[in-house]
């Protein structure tokens, strides 16, 4: 079964072709980051217009990359939500028009289910059940995943998402939008011994997290340094980046271990943009090497938004579970409300 996947929930237009026998055949992406950088954040109207410009050429590029034609498609999957309403409507319209024209099924995919299942696009892939640490720009959740559609939230952030904390902290350090990946790169040259920041809720009994206080702690540190030295020199900035990253990684790792224990599972899956973070991966890999659990990640290029995870989740829904169809979008959509396999 050959599935075309279209992602347009935010500022990336992603299109991909996934074949249930042969795997991922093609994957094309256009990121609007540079366009939104000037405004310091995503401008929804500009995002929708750009998806309109990009989606068809990217679809054609995918078909060419895979040596396939529209007539070869068996289904079209698109991100139905959550996300920006106008942006979602672009993907929904194109997917529905294509499916209607070709007389094939259309599947509305939950964006977070896409992220959640994306580690299954890597080799070796994790078997069910597993604990998923979903760390993206808009969400930070620990979930018990027992199969396609069978998700229990074990804990989540009470305020900012991890990616959001990276981006907001980067902004207050004067780094260009979106600063998460830049902050992480600068942290590599930072001295871990110079500053120490709090580990919010690390010791709490539950699996919930909180990252907005960490951002405020960085702000206080920056003000203190500026008052003392007049400005922040590059090494000091790198040292602050390192202290921030150490704190966030400690919390994510600590909560993940607690979740594995609580769910009595031995496989951890990391998904979402922050899953690309090298220090987080190194910390989890080091613990996994001791043999108590296994850890799995999506391919690096598929951590942030992409069409491949949507094509894959669409294919899994068609194969194992009740797919949501129809021409509608759900800017807000609870993952727990999805039907299980
Ligand atoms: P959601 O999926 O919750 O709707 P989103 O689609 O915006 O949100 P993703 O595309 O999964 O989120 O991830 C983007 C986020 O990942 C951004 O906040 C970005 O800063 C962060 N990110 C990407 N790479 C890294 C990295 N190497 N280190 C830390 N954060 C990173
Ligand atoms: Mg994005
Ligand atoms: Fe996302």
TrEMBL record:
> What keyword terms does UniProt attach to this protein?
Acyltransferase, Cytoplasm, Hydrolase, Iron, Metal-binding, Protease, Transferase, tRNA processing
Cofactor(s) it depends on: Fe(2+)
Intracellular or extracellular location(s) = Cytoplasm
This enzyme catalyses:
L-threonylcarbamoyladenylate + adenosine(37) in tRNA = N(6)-L-threonylcarbamoyladenosine(37) in tRNA + AMP + H(+)
Q: EC no.?
A: 2.3.1.234
In which residues is Fe cation bound? 111, 115, 305
Instruction: Give a single Pfam family match.
Output: TsaD
Residues annotated as binding substrate: 134-138, 167, 180, 277
Task: Quote the cofactor binding remark.
Answer: Binds 1 Fe(2+) ion per subunit.
Ranges where the Gcp-like domain occurs: 24-312
Gene3D superfamilies, alphabetically?
3.30.420.40
Main location (coarse class): cytoplasm
Q: What does this protein do?
A: Required for the formation of a threonylcarbamoyl group on adenosine at position 37 (t(6)A37) in tRNAs that read codons beginning with adenine. Is involved in the transfer of the threonylcarbamoyl moiety of threonylcarbamoyl-AMP (TC-AMP) to the N6 group of A37, together with TsaE and TsaB. TsaD likely plays a direct catalytic role in this reaction.
Name of the molecule in the record: tRNA N6-adenosine threonylcarbamoyltransferase
List the gene name.
tsaD
């Amino acid at each position: 079964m050959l599935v075309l996947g279209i992602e347009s929930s935010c500022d990336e237009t992603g299109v991909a072709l996934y074949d249930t026998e042969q795997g991922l055949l093609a994957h094309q992406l256009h990121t609007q980051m540079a366009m939104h950088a000037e405004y310091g954040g995503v401008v929804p109207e500009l995002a929708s217009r750009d998806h309109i410009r990009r989606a068809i050429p990217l679809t054609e590029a995918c078909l060419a990359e895979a040596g396939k034609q529209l007539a070869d498609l068996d289904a079209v999957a698109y991100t139905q939500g959550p996300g920006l309403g106008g942006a979602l409507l672009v993907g929904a319209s194109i997917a529905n028009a294509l499916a209607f024209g070709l007389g094939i099924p259309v599947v509305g995919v939950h964006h977070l289910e896409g992220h959640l299942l994306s580690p299954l696009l890597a080799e070796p892939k994790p078997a069910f059940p597993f604990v998923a640490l979903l760390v993206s720009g808009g969400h930070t959740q620990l979930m018990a995943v027992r199969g396609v559609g069978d998700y229990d939230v074990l804990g989540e952030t009470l305020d900012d998402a991890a990616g959001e904390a990276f981006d907001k902290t980067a902004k207050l350090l004067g780094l260009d939008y979106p600063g998460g990946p830049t902050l992480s790169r600068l942290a590599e040259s930072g001295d871990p011994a110079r500053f120490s920041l709090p580990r919010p809720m690390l010791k709490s009994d539950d699996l919930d997290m909180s990252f907005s206080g960490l951002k405020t702690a960085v702000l206080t540190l920056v003000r203190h340094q500026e008052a003392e030295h007049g400005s922040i020199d590059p090494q000091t900035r790198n040292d602050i980046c390192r202290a921030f990253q150490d704190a966030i990684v400690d919390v994510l790792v600590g909560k993940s271990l607690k979740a594995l224990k609580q769910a009595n599972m031995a496989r951890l899956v990391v998904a979402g943009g922050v899953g690309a973070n090298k220090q987080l991966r190194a910390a989890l890999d080091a613990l996994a090497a001791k043999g108590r659990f296994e850890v799995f990640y999506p391919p690096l290029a598929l951590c942030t938004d992409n069409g491949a995870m949507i094509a894959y989740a669409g294919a899994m829904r068609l194969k194992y579970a009740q797919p949501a169809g129809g021409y509608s979008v759900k800017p807000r959509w609870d993952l727990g409300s999805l039907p299980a396999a």
